[in-house]
Amino acid sequence: MSANQDVVYTSAVSLLDRYRKRELSPVEVTRLLLDRLDALQPKINAFCIVDHDGALATARESERRWLSGKAVGKLDGVPVTIKDLILMRGFPTLRGSRLVDPDQDWSEDAPATARLREAGAVILGKTTTPEFGWKALGDSPLTGITRNPWNLARTPGGSSAGAAAACAAGIGPLHVGSDGAGSIRIPAAFTGIFGLKPSFGRVPAYPLSAMGLLAHLGPMARTVADAALMLTLLSAPDHRDSYALPPEERDWRDGLEGGVRGWRIAYSPTLGYAKVDPEITAAVGEAARQFETLGAVVEEVGAIFPSPREALFTLWAAGAAKLLDAYPADKRALVDPGLVATAAEGERISAVDYLGADLIRTALGQQMSAFHQKYDLLLTPMMPIPALPVGQDLNDSATERHWIDWSAFSYPFNMTRQPAASIPCGLTGTGLPIGLQIVGPLYADARVLRAARAFETTQPERRPPLAP
Fold this sequence. Notes:
The protein has helices spanning 3-8, 12-20, 26-44, 52-67, 111-118, 161-168, 185-191, 224-234, 278-293, 309-325, 337-347, 351-371, 412-415, 445-456; strands at 47-50, 79-83, 122-127, 139-140, 144-145, 174-179, 194-197, 216-221, 264-267, 297-300, 377-381, 420-427, 433-439. The chain is an alpha/beta fold. The model has no long low-confidence stretch (mean pLDDT 97). Strands 1-3-2-6-8-7-12-13-11-9-10 form an 11-stranded mixed β-sheet, with helices on both faces. It is globular.
């Protein structure tokens, strides 16, 4: 391994330590990462905007602060990226769509972007997303296909596609993602990184998503400690989100090393309704057994609730219809055909049907609240299949009609608003990452992070074969 490659895969926590010891400088790291970005972007297409000048200017300011002993925040000089559904001052947020007019006022940061700037982070640029984040794949009419660093013929998943691809490829340790039905956890699983969907409202959002209570913001990183550090910043209060949880003055790294000894953990290989690839079943089963070696009591369970697929689709299609309603109907030819079709179904949903789906969502949350009276955590496969080939929306066109049909483990926990994470737990025989999902009770984000960190200690570091 080259010294440069060692640096680009250094964690945020380690970068800060090395800045403090003057072993590395923010300018040196930023230049290395921008060079790596420029070399890999033609292969993986993870960025829609790269701010070379702004990143280097911020890095120089950070370097001056470190040299004078006046580092300003928890991420001073650490490179980060922002998903292109999230406002970033000075650059358009086009949301993967040709519908969005780039010629408008872009002078406001979203809460997540603002908190990272205040902490001294170096923003490398904006990462790609499918159009309006509507699907779990990495392509859009605006930016084309984003590719998986583990295999360029495969998707990194979505909708936080570019964030996951960049993270896995060693282009920055910290990445802001969003998750409306799996959009942090799906690409985290497909690219072999760690991704956390915090409890709804933990990370303030603005503007709010058309997907309403389904939509979460959260960290994507290569280590659990980095994600916990990033959550500490992202969860700071912002008055613009009326749904935000009451702020907690805490560092989410506190207690991270506490382990899971004595915890009671449920493991469901299928949730009672999902069809799972045998290699993934084996890897996730072995991951569940690792929790036993860590001292937890693990119990296999089957069905916990009926599949909420139809209720989720009702909520998702209605959200898609609301998204496109803001744009002229004669522009639909510019839009991803799958989004147009989903929105068309959403336009036919009655208020009564929507409220019926919302009641199913409420009932699902109640069921999981009761479930967690017995179990501290739930483990499942994150994805039932390995990363799909690029340009392929369905895994099995004979039995599926929508991307949610191949992501049965992700969206239930958007409906319940619970914290849920994806952490790497192995590779398939063809070298594609496999993810384990860790689900905690509502608001028990610290418990999910602590369990993820315990499991992380049992795993080797895995890097994709891609090199610039």
